[in-house]
Amino acid sequence: MRSNTAIIVSLVMVGTLLSCSFTAYGFARLNAPGKNVIFMLVLATLMLPGAVTLVPTYLMFNAIGWVNTFLPLIVPAFFGSAFNIFLLRQFYMTIPMELEEAAKIDGASVYRIWWSIMLPLSKPVLATVAVFTFVATYNDFFLPLIYLADEEKYTIAVALSFFQGSPRIGPQMHLLMAAVTMSILPPLILFLAAQRYFVRGIVTSGLKG
Predict the structure, then answer these.
(1) Percentage of residues in the chain having pLDDT higher than 90
(2) Widest pairwise Cα distance in the chain
(3) What's the CATH code, domain 2-206?
């Protein structure tokens, strides 16, 4: 179960960082007709409850044979997240345009500017998105319970429910507390490792203007 969680969390983080950072760069820097309208539509999806799309999404994944696999938990991350796109876009807009103009004079393409300039300068916000994504995916109980049927494919969040015991035995609280204590170590370690980037992000934002 630890390996299942590690695979899902790692791939979701990679997909989220790549898709959201590139999409946010387009909204922040590139010019296109109706860009602001499209961005508002992306933000409007934040007001859509997940329960509304749960049934049609499940039916779609079931129709293509993805139920009881990790794919429904991983693939959507490669199509962006409205909140993370907004967060990254706001940070990109604080980066001076002169850096991109100098790169364009040297012949850099849009992809090269995003990869070689924007991403290295965006470590604080990328660390923030990574921590948010890690914690949300690591603690997700509902979606793995919906899409995964085999116990050997369960994640840690679902496995913790096994310690509730049976009606005859009752909840095993001592085992549950021990398992929960061990399960919080990975998010705690990640947060401590990325804490300095949070501070740097606050300082960078404070220098704006």
Answers:
(1) 47
(2) 74
(3) 1.10.3720.10
CA distances from 2 to 5, 72, 107, 132 (A): 5, 18, 46, 19
**Contact call for residues 126 and 141 (beta carbons, < 8 A):** no
d(C-alpha 198, C-alpha 123), whole Å: 9
Instruction: Return the domain boundaries, the chain.
Output: 2-206
pLDDT in tens, 172-192: 777 777 777 888 888 888 888
Residue type, 3: S
What residue type is 181 in one-letter code? T
Question: What tens digit of pLDDT does each residue of 11-34 get?
Answer: 999 999 999 999 999 999 988 888
Structure tokens at 147: 């899409």
Query: How many angstroms separate the Cα of 17 from the Cα of each of 31, 113, 131, 209?
Result: 22, 16, 11, 27
Q: Is the pTM of this model over 0.90?
A: no
